[in-house]
Amino acid sequence: MLRRFPQWVALWLFVLSAAIAVTILGTFILYPIDVHFLNILDQSNVPVTFGQLYRNYGQLMTYLHFPWIGTLHMTNFPVSATGAVHFHDVKNLFLLDYAILIITAWPAWHFLRQLKRRGNTWRLLNPSRIAMAVPAALGVLALMGFDQFFITFHEILFRNSDWIFDPAKDPIITVLPEDFFAHTFFLAFILLELFCWLLYRWAKKQSRA
């Protein structure tokens, strides 16, 4: 186990980063649903249509995804200096997740193939069971009080308080309500649980073969 520790780390980093990446990309579908479900247009302090709002969301996500885009510009929503710093920090986290996903993809796949070839897929069973408990536990904590969970999450990941937006200076925050982020977190938990369960089912099936 210790000898293969780097391979185990690569595998679980891949699973986690994959769940996060799919969640990020999934918001392109989730956000327009929430715009209608949460009546986000009514909460906006900038008069925009649904098409204009989604275009601005696309501009934000484009900035967050591509390292060669150095400045955030949204057509209908100005960005303050502190807002720009926060979104730059978010951009770095996005790029870090994609980098981890790419870097760990081959070691994770090679490790799984090695376990299968040697008939050792049973070694995945207990770690997978334990891993399935993590998103479930996080989901329960979030349900018990998402406000505090959300604050703690930001305090852990960000070195400053720039994530506390002033709607007058950064009106984009009025169309990114906390409920939308709650749905995003729960989507990530569900995907992580699903990926761990699929890994468990694969290992169990291969162990019986």
Give the overall pLDDT as a whole number.
93
Low-confidence stretches: none
Strand content bin: under 5%
- Cα(first) to Cα(last) distance is 23 Å
Task: Give the % helix.
Answer: over 70%
Number of strands: 0
Number of helices: 7
Overall radius of gyration: 20 Å
Write down the secondary-structure element order. HHHHHHH
Query: What summary fits the major beta sheet?
Result: none
Shape call: elongated
Structural classification: mainly alpha
What does this structure look like?
The protein is mostly helical and 209 residues long. It is elongated. Helices cover 73% and strands 0% of the residues. It is built from seven helices and no strands. The mean pLDDT is 93.
What features would you highlight for this structure?
209 residues, mainly alpha, 7 helices, elongated
Break the fold down into its secondary structure elements and pairings.
Layout: H1 5-37, H2 40-43, H3 50-65, H4 81-117, H5 125-144, H6 146-157, H7 178-208
Short account of what is shown:
This protein is mainly α. It is built from seven helices and no strands.
